Amino acid sequence: MATTGEWIEGARPRTLPNAVAPVVAGVGAALALDGFSWSRSVLALLVSLALIIGVNYANDYSDGIRGTDENRVGPLRLVGSGVAKPKAVLAAALASLGLAGVLGLVLVAISGLWWLLAMGAICILGAWFYTGGKKPYGYYGFGEIAVFVFFGLAGVLGTVYVQAGQLSWTALGCAVAVGAFSTGVLTANNLRDIPTDIESGKRTLATRLGDKGTRRLYLVLVAVPYIVSVLLAFVTPWALLGLLTAPLLLKSVKAVGGGSQGRALIPALRDTGFAMLGWAILTAVALAL
């Protein structure tokens, strides 16, 4: 039986910035529209956290029963390492996704935007079929697109809309920036896993682009948010605060651009996540000012 610490590690806490950053950036864009609500912001954050934990457990379960994680290089996987039974991890995944659904329903009921239930259902289905089902889209190179849509566009714009009842170009810019960061995290992860993914038959975008192409993609993705910061400066000069997070990526850019392999790429996931969260916080503060 897995220990509490192993269950926590299995939830992949390093990915939590991917859930927090979209909501923080969305709050900033909502403040710029004078549409901020504490209760709706907190609910949006809880939905996002439950969703990403559900994704992580579902990914652990699906990859584990397929044997994809048997020879992986990264952190602990519950099923792949054998420390937890597949059914237990599946139950944790379904419980997390179910909680995301319930909290999302409460948020929709409070906002009165019932059509958002469809978007919530799509997010939950997207979380499961990333690596679940007979033909998981994450195995066919569509994982990066899904991350950009769900933890970028949907996460930021959904947070803005349930509070302000409208969107803006500023909100879209924040959504693109956070989506690029979040996709960068996944790209760094899949870059590290190219050898084992090829061996197990998992055809991620990284395995299709190859080592050099994936490294170029990562560098482009982490540059996008800073281009957005410059563009947002036309709305408020305070948006340039987001540029202060660029030094957090220096080691990651050096590792990815310099050809680092395997475990040497693990810090790139963490640093990209921290840069994303820092960018979201500083940009939210800028938009509030």
From TrEMBL:
GO molecular function: 1,4-dihydroxy-2-naphthoate polyprenyltransferase activity
Gene Ontology CC entries for this record: plasma membrane
Subcellular location: Cell membrane; Membrane
Family the entry assigns: Belongs to the MenA family. Type 1 subfamily.
Its membrane topology: Multi-pass membrane protein
Function: Conversion of 1,4-dihydroxy-2-naphthoate (DHNA) to demethylmenaquinone (DMK).
Residues annotated as transmembrane: 38-58, 88-107, 113-130, 137-161, 167-188, 217-244, 264-288
Catalysed conversion reaction: an all-trans-polyprenyl diphosphate + 1,4-dihydroxy-2-naphthoate + H(+) = a 2-demethylmenaquinol + CO2 + diphosphate
Biological process, per Gene Ontology: menaquinone biosynthetic process; vitamin K biosynthetic process
InterPro entries in UniProt: MenA, UbiA_prenyltransferase, UbiA_sf, UBIAD1
Lineage top rank: taxon: Bacteria
Enzyme Commission identifier(s): 2.5.1.74
Keyword annotations: Cell membrane, Membrane, Menaquinone biosynthesis, Transferase, Transmembrane, Transmembrane helix
Pathway: Quinol/quinone metabolism; menaquinone biosynthesis; menaquinol from 1,4-dihydroxy-2-naphthoate: step 1/2
Enzyme class: transferase
Protein name per Swiss-Prot or TrEMBL: 1,4-dihydroxy-2-naphthoate octaprenyltransferase
